[in-house]
Amino acid sequence: MRPDKYLILFAFLFIVATGWINQVHAQITPTRRPATETTDEDTTEINKAQKQDSILYGPNTTHYILEEDVKFNREVPHDIDTTLLPVYNYTVVDRHKNLLQDLGNVGTAVTPVFYIPPQILGVTPGFDAYGYYFMDPKEAKYYNTQSPYTRIEAIFGGNGRSITDVTFSGNITPEWNIGVRYLGRNADKQLGAEQSKGDRQTTSTGFNFFTHYRTRNKKYQVFFNFSWLNHKVEESGGIVHDTTTLLEDLFDYEDARIYLRNAYDRELRYNLHVYHQYVISDLLQVYHEADQQVQKNEFHDTNLKSETNDITEGDFFVRKTMFEDTTYDATRFSYLQNEVGVKGKVGDLFYNFYLKYKIPRFTYRHLMGRYAKTEQYFGGRINYQFGEKTAVGGETEYLSLDAYKLHGYFKSPFVDATYLRQRSLPSYLARTYRGNHNSWYENDFGPVDVDQ
User: Fold this and answer.
1) Which pTM does this prediction carry?
2) How many whole angstroms separate alpha carbon 133 and alpha carbon 28?
3) How far is CA 172 from CA 20, 57, 155, 275, in A?
4) Contact 402, 423 (CB under 8 A)
5) Per-residue CA distances from 48 to 52, 334, 370 (Å)
6) 239, pLDDT greater than 50
7) Please, what's the b/e burial string for 299-332 (b: 16 or more CB within 10 A of its CB; e: otherwise)?
8) Residue 10 pLDDT > 60
9) What would the mean pLDDT of 180-202 be, rounded to a whole number?
10) What is the rounded CA–CA span in Å between residue 387 and residue 214?
11) Cα-Cα end-to-end distance for the chain
């Protein structure tokens, strides 16, 4: 199914769900006698009953949980945030405490300032520059609302910069909630703009549809989540710097000369995620988790010859291996992953053991064949809680002698300590790549070792 068909499906589900919620609320509205049959005594009794049974809707009648709260047996509802403290954290960099670095505009490529160990032991595509703009299904908030809940965040800045984040959620029944989130990012060019307004550098649209259902006795729970991102960025190649450029000219910004005027890259990513569990007893629960994800990365330059016209020394692209006038490089990474496991609590000890089966697929536009190797993991977690604020625990995951993880931690009000020993496989991009401006084949890189 094409992404635009998913949008149509989301719109349809959203309209149906909204109408259903309104219908449910209409059905629970108390019925009243006709005015001609209501006496003064009846009216007084009705008013007393309504005051006694009425609910003051507000922050205390809307809560949310995270999937990991349920998975790790710490299901404590979270209150919605009504403070104004984080409103000035606009960008992805701001919201990660400035531990990331971008290219100076909303939606541009992002990389961590400090090294972060890989989160996945097996193979990855290696295209991570826009991963922080994707709404990770495992970080979704699942609400429990006594009245429909809407959260709207709209941020507008200079040079056509804007961020819009809207969430709507409502309960169909006390046990079943649905919701949808929209996240849009747009920004005009700060370098090399050809018009004062509307010459976009970033155009990004993301949707997230989520639902959570549990039985009344909470024996069974299921989380369903679908995330979709279409992220496009016009690339400038940076400010032209040659022997005739003065230092102060590098800070003209809007008037600065740039290398590229016909280049852009795009990331299209979507993920279908399901988690459900059944509680046999406090000592034993069984669960299943499934993910299907597709990530497409493209780079286009529709007129390579014109890119050199504004550059006084040499070409921006040092070499062109296939086409002299146009570049269209593309990759597609997808995987299907299933995890089954058992978990439970013995007193203050939480345990979890699981098996995970992953089928990845990776294709290049300019290379024949599909790169794929099935991955089978097994792992476990333990956590022992000493009171409310002190805990000790660890986790392990094993794929092969070339890919495993050992992680231990101790947390207390006075000191926290963690240790990580990990080996992970290099990405597809590091091993093999063929594009119009670069290529390398079957690099025999060893695993990445991390001690932290």
Assistant:
1) 0.84
2) 40
3) 7, 17, 31, 20
4) yes
5) 6, 60, 71
6) yes
7) bbbeebeebeeebeeeebbeeeeeeeeebebbbb
8) no
9) 92
10) 29
11) 42
